[in-house]
């Protein structure tokens, strides 16, 4: 697809990449900043797209922040409306279905159309094909090594 890809795993303690997920906008800005800065250095064309993978495998009812999700998607829509190519949600627990129904009411239709909840083998196959095995971490069926976002090296700006 030619888009920068970022995988985020939410831990049961409510952190993601060492950052507290409940930060809402701050967390979204952190993710976007790291993803954009680390993925396009030297290949900037001005309209880079992102593929997000939200892994909710370790999320529990206790640490779900629906308001943070709403705020994050609204921020993405308002300030980066065309950056998101796709957002895949993997390992979504059953209880999250009701949370997602509520959250999705606050997300614009154009953004909702870019969100795919991977629930079966056919969707997983498309997920792997769209991202590409070379870019997708082994944990998700690819060949890449998953790096924590805090370990991603961001190139320094020149000039």
TrEMBL record:
CDD domains: SEC14. Residues 25-148 form the CRAL-TRIO domain. InterPro entries: CRAL-TRIO_dom, CRAL-TRIO_dom_sf. Gene3D superfamilies: CRAL-TRIO lipid binding domain. This is CRAL-TRIO domain-containing protein. It comes from Gossypium barbadense.
């Amino acid at each position: 697809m030619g888009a920068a890809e970022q995988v985020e795993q939410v831990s049961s303690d409510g952190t993601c990449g060492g950052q507290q997920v409940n930060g809402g906008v701050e967390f979204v800005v952190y993710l976007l900043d790291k993803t954009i800065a680390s993925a396009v250095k030297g290949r900037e064309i001005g309209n880079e797209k992102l593929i997000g993978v939200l892994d909710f495998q370790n999320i529990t009812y206790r640490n779900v922040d629906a308001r943070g999700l709403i705020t994050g998607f609204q921020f993405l829509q308002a300030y980066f409306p065309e950056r998101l190519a796709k957002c895949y949600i993997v390992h979504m627990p059953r209880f999250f279905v009701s949370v997602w129904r509520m959250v999705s009411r606050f997300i614009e239709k154009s953004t909702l159309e870019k969100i795919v909840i991977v629930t079966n083998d056919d969707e997983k196959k498309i997920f792997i094909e769209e991202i590409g095995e070379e870019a997708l971490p082994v944990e998700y069926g690819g060949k890449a090594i998953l790096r924590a976002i805090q370990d991603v090296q961001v190139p320094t700006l020149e000039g």
